[in-house]
Protein 1
Amino acid sequence: MNYAQHEHHDFLGASNQALADPPLQAALTRLTDTLMAGNRKGYAALADSSALRDHAKRIKEHTLAHLDRYLEQLEASVQKLGGRVHWAATADDARRIIVTIAQQAGCQNAVKSKSMTSEEIHLNGALEKAGVRVTETDFGEFIIQLAGERPSHLVAPAVHHTRESVARVLSQHLGQPLPDDPKSLALAGRRVLREEFRRADLGISGVNFAVAETGSIVLITNEGNGRLTTTCPRVHVALMGIEKVIPRMRDLPVFLKLLARGATGQTLSVYTTMITGPKRPGEQDGPDEFHLVILDNGRSRVLATPFRESLQCIRCGACLNACPVYRRIGGHAYGGVYSGPIGSILTPLYDSVTLNPHLPHASSLCGACQAACPVKINIPHMLIGLRALQHQHGQGGHGGRHRGRWESWAYRLWSVVLRRPWLYRLALRGARLALRRWDQDGWLTRLPGPGASWTALRDFPAPAALSFRQRWKKDLE
Amino acid sequence: MQTRDTILHQVRLAVTEGNRLQPAPPLPERGRIGYQGAADAVERFCSELTAAGGHPFVTPDRDAAVQRIRDIMQRHQARKIALGCGGVIEDLDVANRLRGDGVDMTPMDALAAPRFREAMFAADIGISNVAYLIAETGSVVMATAPNEPRSLSLLPPVHIALAHVEQILPDLFDLFDLYSPVADLAKPAAPPPSCLTLITGPSKTGDIELKLVTGVHGPGELHVILIGSQ
Amino acid sequence: MITCLGDALFPDVGVATVKLLRRLGVGVDFPESQTCCGQPHFNSGFHHDARALAKHTIHAFAKSPLVVTPSGSCAAMVKLEYPELFHHDPVWHGRAEDLARRTHELSDFLVNVLGKVDVGARYPARATYHMACHLRGLGITTEPLRLLENVAGLELVPLERHDECCGFGGSFAVRYPAISGAMVNDKAGFVEKTGAEVVVATDAGCLMNIGGCLRRRGGKVRIMHLAEVLAQQ
């Protein structure tokens, strides 16, 4: 099985469908407006947030530049406290490891706290196949699981649902009609899930940060399901990508101060939990077994490339909220596990550059993502880098090899013209003459070729009768 | 073992290869960047906790503190109370002073494993001590230990945390410094507890149309009673 | 620096820039070998072509002590991307850094180099301001607004989501007309809602896109470049 199980690679169809879906548009507007207002307010409230974000970035740069060392330190720290460490090179390895842990410990009912990495490896299906019931316990994830869907946002997985659709999904599950107000629905969810926690013998979580120095893993939630998942069941399995490690305990608050501010504008999420090993002697609750699964799944390949910066991502979702494209097409249109600007980098890198031809191009490169990112990842640069990588694969933005070649010749020709001012002047004059017949007081309402998709929606300014350089010569020089 | 070595070997190669493209920076020292601590710690704690939806209550008077607990219990018509041990709870003698109120009071140290779990799932209110409080964020810090279980601040729908104002730390950085070794003194760090949790307000979800609902998994109400001057 | 789009489509912007700078006592020259900064090629991933155009541009401005351009997008290309493009070529990297240091976007030059927020402009109109994306990259967030606030007779009204991209994005507008169209129609809608007669922007891309959309919608709002407003007296 692959990194991304696409139900489609039809980016254009899916995005057009999203654009024509008014309830989805309303939900995306509400979500992105609210969370972006929070992001701005959050950074503004922290006196030197920009310097702290630079600092956080440097910690990540340093860690990635010594990743082998920190991973070994993390492993030793976890083992010292009685935790078990498992290494998974691929998604398949990780699934097999977790299924084996469940079988050896005789676990039958698993509760899961929200983890994008577990989505990445498609864990639930593998556990179910091995006879382990799995229940997602983040409320949004629970809805998604009952509806048989994928999350459409990193931190708000069910944003594409309305109160009516949540009521429908949950009523069907409970076999009784529920009113469609958010409070009743969430509290009905609490009752169902509380029973699942009582019954569960296996808790599966992701990892927001792993501290090499102490072997602590950090979980951040607003609902408290992360705490319940690591408190009630007798076995806890935490799944992390290799990039989640940070060197020291004192580096952790740097990220804690930025993560919630960037994601929602909260000063801190409601629950930040640092778990260091299994339950200790004399303690009344907590798991008897603690397992840490460290997953590569393509990350080390990316670590060696100029796309290394993408491994600094802390999965806060700020770039999705800031992105004018995400806010119009939503998460499902991106086709991968991760959506939005960061998804447009991760999906081509981990899945396939050639099978995801649209993602690097479906961005106006406006830079709002980088401005919102807690670690200031230069997402526009990496999108451009992926475009260049596509050309190396002989491919253009719309996928066809033929088109890719045509496009690269056009750009080449254009650059040849631009480096010869006399040729440039000639070309300008030619364009002016050719377009003259569509000119209506300075604007063109129709253009031929690729320009037609511009003029389908808006007018295009007609080339001026005298270019600036002509007027410079005539009047200004 | 074999997979481990293969992965680490690959990571090592990737690190070397990638470091050729961009030089590896040293682990940066933070200095004072991002430090938010200030003198008005109690005030800051209360305003941040309130902003997060929690209820602070500061009093120098022990009777007023116990009365506050009693008020919360009565408002919720609580029958079953899960009670922590030691610390401020013992100072205030909470167990004995509330015993007459017709509630079923279960102190943590009286519980063996199977009964413990039942009592925790059944409790209406959990009353706990805290390890620290953070003024910057309005958080209470819970450190798991024998008789300081994780469930106490998690399973009951209402959580009352008791603390002295002296337990307030100005900034998040101050908390994590406590668990960090001091290099020049060669002082070993205090090992972190098996579970260290920062709680900042009641449990929240916004998963349905971004409407805020409290108490979806953890407690829907968080009360912090601070004993001290003011 | 008046590069391709400004030269061919919006010559008035260049003329206004020259007049404004001369009015402020700045001597202006226009090296005629300049054509395009290479940003379209760079953004589309044709780094080889972009590098060739960057060399051409660096050459064209080799003798200019200061380079001012009424385009955030060209300024961002020169200041942020040129040095990066020649990462592995010490000679050209040095030249690129040198040009990057000498180059300024117009509002940056007026406010931060000349130290002027009041350029003596007068333009009685109700106007609103759209922030071009490349100013975000350059960290120029308040300069154009401060300049506009000091234009005599100009009534400046705030624009909802003023810093959201208009949907231009070069080839993006042509590749994804539906998404780009949704973006620019929202932008035009917000502009119309302000009741302004004029929307001011600082980049040819925004002028084309927002202006073209406003015109197609049939409204009366005009689009102007900041330089055109500041040149008025």
Note: Chain C touches chain A through 67 residues (CB under 8 Å).
Protein 2
Amino acid sequence: MRLFPTLLAAGAALLLAACSDEPPAADAGAGSGGAVSLDPSSVAYFQQTVGDRVFFETDSSRLTPVGQATLQRQASWLAENPAVNVVVEGHADERGTREYNLALGARRAEAARAFLAAQGVAANRLRTVSYGKERPEALCSAENCWSVNRRAVSVLAGAPTS
Amino acid sequence: MIRILTAALLVALAAALPARAQTSDGALEITVAGGEFKPISIALPGFFAPPGEAANLAAQVREVVIGDLVNSGLFREIPPGAHIEQIVDFDSAPRYADWQAINADALVTGFATIEADGRLSVRFRLFDIFAGGQAEGLQFIAEAGDWRRVGHKIADAVYAKLTGEGPYFDSRIAYVHESGPKGQRVKRLAIMDQDGANNRFLTDGRSLVVTPRFSPNDQTLLYISFERGEPQIFLYDVGSGRQEILGAFPGMSFAPRFSPDGRQVALSLEQGGNTDIYVMELATRRLSRLTDSPAIETAPSFSPDGRQIAFESDRGGGQQIYIMPATGGPAQRISFGQGRYGTPVWSPRGDLIAFTKTSGGQFAIGVMRTDGSEERILDSSFLSEGPTWSPNGRVLSFFRESAGANGSASLWSVDITGRNLRRLPTPGAGSDPAWSSLLP
């Protein structure tokens, strides 16, 4: 489990990136990943340099251009690490009802999964699960937290942690 | 363990009630709509009992009765210090003038004994002060450990007689107990009496659980657990503690609700990111598909006659409430107000649908008629969600969650008139209440 301050910083960077429509991981990678050398096949590298998550607008499961770029990098990484499988977790912010948000989280996970599959990741390496609004990462009740909670996170199985 | 709870009619002490001050169904005239509301004034002198265990139980049963009636918002207790007549004999008629003088509408007297077999027997009489007669007289016999249920049964009898509404105090609420930080909530299935007593936990918190739902005719619950990774519907028998997964579904299964006869379950299945509504026959586990669209269709709730299903769908662009035949087919949208509408729950009386509304950054609990008209908002907050009906369709319970990193969930109830908003006592935070039917 990541620490909250780290998360907020990452979220802010991603939001900035989203505004300028540039890949967020380039900035995040230069700042944090650059200092420590990570095993490029590790979970940490995937999370920090490739980017393990994409974000959504309110009540939407449409992939943004930034999100598509992140998923393209994920697909390339997965092509280079064929032994690793992925569970795509779909999440919603707290501003919807519980059951609707489970369905919305499933839509978001599927949007990311389908994109990865279209990029050539074998379907049997990809699973999805929705957490609805049950597992927020940013805890405040404001848009800057909600925007990073509306997410699909690619969780790796079978890769070294760092 | 089988518990026995029997009721017997007591012989009336006075002539049958005259029709004065009575509606055709035997209830006192109480105005429940509009601005002017006067609760029924009720006096409950200490219950009679021989000294010892029966006396203790008599006092405790009486407290349960008073708690139920006062918490319903429809009654006011006249404290014993204000009583003029001191009742000395359970089997004598009261001096009505003495009770009229303190503006009592009704008087309840009780008499508790421990039977030879150790069971608790409580007799009570309800007197209509203005009509001047006994309106009800019953005896309940139960295991002594069930004394709270005896209190609820007496309160239910008094409430039903005086308000003309169906009883609801002898019922339970299942809910999700919450602990731990907001990002890593520990959620446990819990159950308690309607008044918050006898709380117990049904799951240990190792798996995330949400949205328990009661069977209409027994103590079976449906709920969602993440114990297998993906959210799936489980059945839980409150009596035996046995649980089983409802079915082996290819994707997520959630949003279950029993049909009124308890034989079917309406539910949502998700496949490839798309959520539709199905009905499963419990005996055969046979599944029928009711909706088939790329929209999110979930939160199905049967009408009490079992012929229709209210549900939510975003097929029109945003989350709204629709009604369709219980066998599927064309659906009609019924919510047209500002904002999004979800979690429709059909009243056991059939006349209203309760919902959660999201509008202007607030969440609200409301009711509307089944054609969508006469919308009334009963509670509004940062997050108010998930209404559930009391067995008589008179009260809604729901949960609120406060904002921020330290926000927490709490259970509430409100009268369908919008009065008597109350926080329900739970040991810690609670969400997703599910009200049971009346216990047998």
Note: Residues 15-34 of chain B have pLDDT under 50 and may be disordered.
